[in-house]
Amino acid sequence: MGFFWTIVVLVVALGLAWRFLGSYMAAVFETRVHFLGFIERPIYAVLGTGPDREQTWKRYTGSLLVFSAAFILFGYLLVRIQGSLPLDPQHLGAVPPALSFNTIVSFVTNTNWQNYGGETTMSYFSQIGVLQVQQFVSAAVGIAAAVALIRGFCRKGSDTIGNFWVDITRCLLYVLLPVAFLAGIVLVSQGAVMTLAGPVTVHDALNHVTQTIPRGPAAFMGSIMQLGTNGGGFFNADLAHPFENPTGLTNLLYVFLTLSIGFSLTYTFGKMVGSVRHGAAVLGAMVIIFGAWVGFTSYAEHQPNPAVAAAGVTAQPTGNMEGKEVRFGDTSSALFNVSMTQTSDGAVDGASDSYNAMGGFGPLTGMMLGEVSPGGVGTGLYTILLFAIVAVFIGGLMIGRTPEYLGKKIQAREVKLAGFGILVMPVVVLVFTGIAVSVHAGRAGPLNGGPHGFSEILYAFTSQSNNNGSAFAGLTGNHAFYNVMGAIAMLLGRFAVMVPALGLAGALAAKKTVPASAGTFRTDNTMFVGLLIGVIIIVGALVFFPAVALGPIATALSHKFYSVVPALSHVGHVLAGRLLR
Amino acid sequence: MRSLVSNLRRSAAAIVVTTVVFGFVYSFVGLGVAQLFFRHQADGSISTYGSSLVGQNWNGYSTTKILDPQWFHGRPDADNPLVATGKPGESGAANLGPHSEVLVQDVKALVRAWHAVGVNPTSDLVTSSGSGLDPDITPADAFAQIPMVSKATGVSPSRLRQLIRQETNGPELGFLGSSTIVVLQLNEALAKLR
């Protein structure tokens, strides 16, 4: 019953956010909101730019890439010298080179994959002055790219798509900053820590135990890391840590924050292109996929953990509690995990690695669909619009007419850019996983053996290529091989999708619009929603089925406790054993 | 070339501005608000015996006793000699998979240890948590431990049941998450009885 009301409250809250945050964001990016002008104008003065200085798509992309590259370099230097910087009460010292490279790429690409343990690696300076800054900035960059693509649909015969510097400034000031700050206050009131005082040592006279408890400025990092779908927590346990996620209420707040911008941007899209129905159609596809995944993952996690059952504890009325926190319980943890893996957030409030086989299948395949339901902030919207272009192309083939989307003719160039953007992620995931299982350094990573070990590797590259950051954390990722391969996967997954999306923005903005006629393929009705979902699922399933069959499906079928299909079990073990030998 | 130079100059300026505003100003204003209005929570909800948000090991300094029968126990997390755990000083889960042989053996060892002190454990009491620091148990987990605690402390089972009910929190707003008991607070209340 509790879970039912959790869903009801979440749906109502997100519905309100969709309508009001969505239209507010449209106003922000159409420069109709000015209440922070006194901060905004000096920033433009320092940057030497302003809202009237429009950029072509090439200039826009150039600014975005140079800015991101410069931030990678700057952040790398800061974490390398953190030992000489202030705010390091634990004297943690410099972060090693390969780990620093992986980490800074991870945060600049909005991935927040963490090969380090927060409380034992990063000084307070690095946490707030490097990582938290990226949690704001990388989110703003993603949203800016999505807004640029929306402008591509809005404009007619234009060679510009907005100004990158203005878009990120307005996003940071008017959207991310106020929401993150208010949410941070709620988190602290519930028990999230916010202090610079360093670890505290407490002696418990009752049972003669002495504990040293790490603390830090975590609460306000928590709010932006979720609002910006970053997910890289202050502590190693991420949002399972009671100091970051102290109560059931904060758990739901984190889910809401993570989903709010992603879903609301579909309203922003609809409003800016002048057809809220088109935004609602995209939202419909997102919600249906999201709901299906929440349903079966929660169901799978409400089932007993087979290893615990095999040890004799067959009564597990609270579901699979291995790796989960009592204050959240099984179904709310599953809701949380699905929310974080379908948004490119990647935070965890329990151990995904210990999920039941089909429970782990949920987060893994959710990422494999390309992070579109609702996906990362901005990135989710532009990725699902790439899928929408492919969907209208297929629809156009079926009715034998040049396809149009929002009045723009979709021609060879647009379909090529969309197809390229969609296929980058699967290619990177499969090639990199293939390399990892072929070399010794890659096979040394997994903690668990057999098909589950293969799942750990597949999950790692799926997560990083999708800029998610969620992990089957048994994998030991802090080795040169995984640090470097992971960083490359994250860079490709971010920029090799973003650049085609911006190219598409440029191509679309330059086009004239064609008036709709009786023969126009409708893109704002339920049939289109179905077609869009179909394209997303078919692309994901065709590309990833063989890999998933070797991982979670083999695990589900293969274990000796509930051996459903013994022959398949044998095949799964032999194949995975070969791969990981 | 000219556009690269101007992009680099703007990037440098934007890096400085964002680092100052969204790194330090944001966090320090947040710190100010947190320390002013929610000092106890912001410092980690620390009381005399520990933090109500960080689980601890109730076996004391004894290395011989696995489950000290005079206290209620939480999840078998960090510092527990019976389970595989992560790095010392670092929060996090054991990450054992759903078919892990290590997990089967760990759970078996825990079940034996609970049986040895006369407790028929619930699943929470033999599985480790996501943070390795879970401060809570459910009322059912506490009820299961009544025979052991009652025998060791002499407090009657009905008094213990009453104590557990009194220390039960939530679910928050009636629907969020589970009903929980902070093990530390339950044991503090128990200590007052003795």
Give your account of this protein's structure.
- The complex is a heterodimer of chains A (about 575) and B (about 190).
- Chain A has about 575 residues and is mostly helical.
- Chain A has one domain.
- In chain A, about 65% of the residues lie in helices and about 0% in strands.
- Chain A has 20 helices and four strands.
- A two-stranded antiparallel ribbon of chain A has the order 1-2. Chain A has a two-stranded antiparallel ribbon with strand order 3-4.
- In chain A, β3 and β4 form a beta hairpin.
- About 0% of the residues of chain A have low confidence.
- In chain B, the strands form two sheets. Chain B has a two-stranded antiparallel ribbon with strand order 1-2. A two-stranded antiparallel sheet of chain B has the order 3-4.
- The radius of gyration of chain B is 23 Å and the shape is elongated.
- Chain B has about 190 residues and is mainly alpha-helical.
- The model of chain B has no long low-confidence stretch (mean pLDDT about 90).
- Chain B folds into two domains: about 40 residues; about 150 residues, no CATH class.
- In chain B, a hairpin with a 2-residue loop joins β1 and β2.
- In chain B, α6 packs across α7.
- The termini of chain B are far apart.
- Chains A and B meet through α1, α2, α3, α6 and α7 of A and α1, β2, α3, β3 and α7 of B.
